[in-house]
């Protein structure tokens, strides 16, 4: 039986299938969808779609080898209003895309409606047979690892003002106190426990309405994942009532020489998402 995973509307991963061992969520042991992000052509930093505009939904997919080329099939539609079950389309899809890429993407014109839904399948090899919903798409190759995914986000409207993706442009990332730039590949000892520090600027998140009980700012969830070794926990939360936007987390290097890929995915829990990718060598 294929190893199948379904991504819930907020991109919380759930696993099903035969013989899959229990693994910690912060370690990437198979094909994984880590995030999806809507970008308007006119304003890529805005997370909230506007009906009638053109945009692109970009997907972050990883494997135990890090970034990987996958077969994909995706569609987008106006979402059916429902609080239960797998998200469904309220009307025929307005866009479809399929192919092979390391950064799958779907271009679309945003339909009228309260919510936008995009869904489909990702395969470790081969093509995708696209179905009418997230549950029925499948990989053509019977031995391909398969991930089914859906991403749903509210359109701008009278009760939903546009907001922006978390801003990581000027974020500071450090490994053991040293700056960790995108092109850097620092090295650590086998089995070492090292500190990863992500510091965000106050402008990295949007303000919330004054009456919001969660606080004056967006709550941010920072998922930290790696292809090898292990973070001490799968995610950190920066509450809307705190001004401290530093995330400190320990990563334990594996006990063998390798290069591990690290992903930090920052969500505002209302559709906005941004991510950072890094590499670290273990010697």
Account of the 3D structure:
Helices cover 0% and strands 45% of the residues. It has strands spanning 4-7, 13-16, 32-40, 54-63, 66-67, 70-78, 95-101, 105-109, 115-123, 128-129, 138-139, 146-154, 172-175, 178-179, 187-188, 193-199, 220-226, 230-231, 235-238, 246-252, 258-267, 273-282. The protein has 2 domains: 4-154, Immunoglobulin-like (Sandwich); 172-282, Uncharacterised protein PF12988, DUF3872 (Immunoglobulin-like, Sandwich). The chain is globular. With 283 residues, it is an all-beta fold. It has a 6-stranded mixed sheet with strand order 2-1-12-9-6-7, with no helix packed on it.
List keywords for this structure.
single chain, six-stranded mixed beta sheet, five-stranded antiparallel beta sheet, about 280 residues, mainly beta, disordered N terminus, globular, 2 domains, Immunoglobulin-like
How does the SSE layout of this entry go?
Blueprint: E1 4-7, E2 13-16, E3 32-40, E4 54-63, E5 66-67, E6 70-78, E7 95-101, E8 105-109, E9 115-123, E10 128-129, E11 138-139, E12 146-154, E13 172-175, E14 178-179, E15 187-188, E16 193-199, E17 220-226, E18 230-231, E19 235-238, E20 246-252, E21 258-267, E22 273-282
Strand content: 35-45%
Give the overall shape. globular
**Which CATH first-tier class of the largest domain would you pick?**
Mainly Beta
- Poorly predicted sequence stretches spanning 5 or more consecutive residues: 1-20
Total helices: the number is 0
The CATH topology of the largest domain turns out to be: Immunoglobulin-like
* Helix vs. strand class: mainly beta
How many structurally independent domains? Answer: 2
- Helical content stands at under 10%
Number-wise, the strands total: 22
**CATH architecture tag of the largest domain:** Sandwich
SSE series: EEEEEEEEEEEEEEEEEEEEEE
Summarize the biggest pleated sheet. Answer: 6 strands, mixed
Terminal CA distance reads 37 Å
